[in-house]
Design goal:
alpha/beta, seven-stranded parallel beta sheet, disordered N terminus
Length: 180
C-alpha cells in the first residue's frame, strides 16, 4: 500500500535522499550538486539554509528537526540511501532509514569537540551511519573518539577543475555506495 501523499512528492523508489537543514554549511552545499544524481531528491528539514535552493521543505515543528521525521516518512517512499548534510538532519534521517531499510550517510563540515563530539559519537553508534568529513585531521578526531575507521571517510571540498567534476562525482558516489 503506497504512503498517502508520497506519489505527489517522490517517485516509488529513489536512489538517494539528501537532507539539508538550516545548519548545513555553505561548503557542504557546494558539494551537493557533485553528489546528487538524477534519481536523487533533496529535501530541507525546515526552511532551506539559503534562498535560491530549488528543493522541497519539510515542516519542522517547534524548530526541532527530530519532530520532522514523521512528516518526512509521509512524503518519502522507498529510498536506498539517506544522506544527512547536517548533524540536525541525523535523527530524522536515521528514523527514515530504519523504516525503509536504507543506508545512512552523515556529512560534517568538521569534527565537533567536547560535549558535542560525545553526543555525536553516541548518535552515530546508535544509528550506524557512515560519516564524511573534509579533512584527515577531522577523521582522526572522530577515530580517536571511538568511531569505526571503516565508517569514517574524507570527502574534501571541491577544488578540481570543472572538467574533473563528473569523474570525481562518479568516484565519490561509488565510494559512498550511491552508484555511478
Amino acid at each position: 500500500m503506497p504512503l498517502r501523499g508520497a506519489a505527489r512528492i517522490m517517485p516509488a523508489m529513489i536512489r538517494a535522499l539528501h537532507l539539508i537543514g538550516p545548519d548545513a554549511p555553505e561548503d557542504l552545499l557546494e558539494q551537493l550538486p557533485l553528489l546528487a544524481g538524477g534519481d536523487d531528491r533533496v529535501l530541507s528539514i525546515g526552511p532551506p539554509p539559503r534562498a535560491g535552493l530549488a528543493l522541497r521543505a519539510i515542516p519542522c515543528p517547534l524548530r526541532l528537526p527530530a519532530l520532522a521525521a514523521r512528516a518526512l516518512g509521509r512524503r518519502v517512499g522507498q529510498v536506498r540511501v539517506v544522506h544527512a548534510w547536517a548533524a540536525s538532519c541525523l535523527a530524522p534521517g536515521a528514523w527514515l532509514a530504519r523504516r525503509r531499510g536504507a543506508g545512512l550517510v552523515l556529512s560534517l563540515p568538521t569534527a565537533p569537540a567536547g560535549a558535542e563530539l560525545d553526543r555525536l559519537r553516541r548518535l552515530l553508534r546508535r544509528h550506524g551511519a557512515v560519516v564524511t568529513v573534509p579533512t584527515e585531521a577531522a577523521r582522526e578526531t572522530l577515530l580517536a573518539a571511538g568511531l569505526d575507521a571503516g565508517r569514517v571517510f574524507v570527502l574534501p571540498p571541491p577544488a578540481e577543475a570543472p572538467d574533473e567534476a563528473p569523474a570525481r562525482r562518479r568516484r565519490t558516489r561509488e565510494a559512498l555506495g550511491l552508484g555511478g
